[in-house]
Specification:
There is one protein chain. The chain is 29% helix and 14% strand. It is α/β, with parallel strands linked by helices. The protein is globular and about 80 Å long.
């Protein structure tokens, strides 16, 4: 029965063979169907502290499967959790989340103890902006070397980092270098004084003989705004003046800022607006502009990895084209968020129809591997702080949310979960409503509950909180814990590449995951009714004998016939 929400997923590239094999694989990509397309920080491997009982219950035969010669392009992965500190947990009663509160809740994310079963089991945290800012969201930074006082102090932040690392959790932070706040002291001085040392840190039409026409490449109208009798460029909003990366002092300042935060202990950065450093108006989208962006990120990366070689850089490259994203993987970023994949996953779950996710991913990964020299890791997700929450997109259907999570958490790369996604939090634009307070308690009230923003979507309906879902073995939160435990315990899911497979059943998505030690077949029954597929369709190179993991009981494997209960994910070895 379909359940409704109360309110509405290092490369060690072992190319077995020669360049001829790559040519064969590329030729093989010419057929098929479907759409779309770092060694992560501190080894970016699977979380050693797998912390769920589901892992122990599912810990079965993980023996080795002999493979035919094939290109094994691994992506060591970590499950990341995106946190908006303001909305997460409040330690001092002012209604605003803070670092002391986030530290208190680390055990919810991963307590570091494999014998417990209530933590989510994630291995990484992405922090939305934590610097001082005049805006609630923090994407207009007024001081790049300090902590937003709403969130605490730098010492609070360092204590949080220490506690996260004790639990095996890596931490990356948003770094917003495309623009500053118009309240940053640099801009205030530049705007009032044309002789300011910071004047050329920004882009002034009158100073550089630039026309003030055009439409912002970010889709926010005119990129030009008035200040002090002149016009400055700000492609997102007048409150976010673009920095001038043709100025060597700006470039050095941002490299030094990156080093500053690495010295504090962060493991890397999520780089906001990564393709907009130079792309400013809609007509400015050629390869020359892309090359300038990539050159900056290569320079930025080189400045960090000499001292911190395990730094993880993931970029917001909001574009559906794998060919464009591939540019940024050339000694610049390890990962670019896979926006097209999120749409593909949600569509499959919502329509309950296979859309052959594995085929376009395989094509994209060949391109990414070539461009990066085998050093890329995909960055996958369902939703984030800029996109309507996945549960809202799925119209409150918990079964569909479980299948979307199953697809995400069995694909290659670093999967990023948006806070509250695991409990089915709702939210749709405007942005404040997709960043509502984390729901910890039944009824929406309790110690540490943030209240900075009135809730419009997550209003405390029965069953919608962490408190309620932790004790329900059939809840969405329990399903996420089970899936993460499965991912953390199966080597091929941790870092394997992907091969597509036609399941022969429009209701079942199937693909192969394989590394040097293991090959598994993953099958998702996207519907509520029992489905069967023929495993011989995987080809003569593979022989699958047993059901290794399952999110629901009742699956059977008889010869090559696999029968899957409704809304179930299976891993077959």
């Amino acid at each position: 029965m379909t359940k409704q929400h109360p309110k509405l997923l290092r490369q060690s590239v072992n190319w077995i063979g020669s360049a001829a094999l790559t040519a064969v694989l590329l030729a093989g990509c010419a057929s098929g169907s479907g759409n779309n397309a770092s060694d992560a920080a501190k080894n970016n491997g699977a979380n050693a502290n797998t912390s769920n009982a589901a892992n122990q219950q599912n810990a079965g035969n993980t023996g080795k499967t002999s493979l035919k010669p094939v290109a094994i392009d691994t992506q060591p992965s970590t499950v990341y959790y995106e946190v908006f500190v303001r909305s997460f947990y409040d330690s001092d009663g002012d209604g605003i989340g803070d670092f002391k509160g986030l530290t208190e809740k680390l055990d919810y994310l991963n307590d570091g103890n494999p014998d417990t079963d209530e933590d989510l089991g994630i291995g990484g945290i992405w922090l939305m902006p934590i610097n001082p800012s005049p805006s609630y969201h923090g994407y207009d930074v007024s001081d790049y070397r300090d902590i937003n006082p709403d969130y605490g102090t730098l010492e609070d932040f360092k204590t949080f980092l220490d506690e996260a690392h004790k639990r095996g959790i890596k931490v990356i932070m948003d770094l917003v270098v495309n623009h500053s706040s118009k309240e940053h002291p640099w801009f205030l001085d530049a705007a009032k004084n044309k002789d300011s040392k910071y004047r050329d840190w920004y882009i002034w039409a009158e100073d550089q003989n630039l026309k003030t026409g055009g439409t912002s490449a970010a889709g926010s109208g005119s990129p030009w705004h008035s200040a002090g009798g002149s016009h400055y460029k700000g492609i997102f909003w007048e409150g976010m003046p673009d920095l001038n990366f043709d100025n060597p002092e700006v470039r050095q300042e941002m490299k030094d800022t990156g080093l500053f935060w690495l010295e504090q202990g962060v493991d890397g950065f999520r780089l906001d607006a990564a393709k907009h450093i130079y792309e400013d108006i809609l007509t400015d989208k050629g390869q020359e502009t892309t090359d300038k962006n990539v050159k900056w990120w290569q320079e930025f990366r080189e400045s960090l990895v000499g001292k911190y070689p395990d730094t993880y850089l993931v970029g917001e490259i909001w574009d559906p084209s794998p060919a464009l994203i591939a540019n940024y993987l050339d000694n610049a970023l390890e990962s670019g968020f896979n926006f097209a994949l999120s749409e593909t996953i949600i569509s499959a779950a919502k329509r309950e129809k296979d859309n052959n996710i594995g085929f376009p991913l395989k094509k994209a990964y060949i391109l990414y591997s070539e461009k990066s020299g085998g050093k890329f890791v995909d960055a996958t997700f369902l939703s984030n702080h800029d996109i309507n929450r996945v549960m809202t997109q799925l119209e409150g259907n918990t079964d569909h949310a479980k299948m979307a999570a199953g697809l995400l958490l069995t694909l290659p790369g670093n999967p990023f979960l948006y806070y509250g996604e695991e409990i089915g939090m709702l939210g749709a634009k405007p942005d404040e409503s997709i960043r509502e307070p984390m729901q910890w308690y039944a009824g929406g009230k309790g110690e540490g509950q943030t209240t900075w923003e009135p809730v419009n979507f997550n209003t405390g309906e029965k069953g919608s909180s962490v408190e309620e879902q932790l004790s329900d073995p059939d809840s969405l939160q329990s399903h996420y814990r089970k899936l993460i435990a499965i991912r953390n315990s199966v080597p091929a899911l941790q870092d394997g590449t992907i091969r597509d497979m036609d399941s022969g059943n429009d209701s079942v998505t199937a693909f192969l995951r394989l590394n040097e030690q293991q090959t598994v077949l993953v099958a998702h029954n996207l519907t509520g009714t029992e489905q069967s597929i023929d495993l011989s369709k995987a080809g003569d190179d593979y022989s699958f004998k047993s059901i290794l993991k399952a999110t629901r009981e009742g699956a059977t494997l008889e010869g090559s016939k696999l029968t899957i209960p409704g809304y179930t994910t299976l891993v077959i070895e």
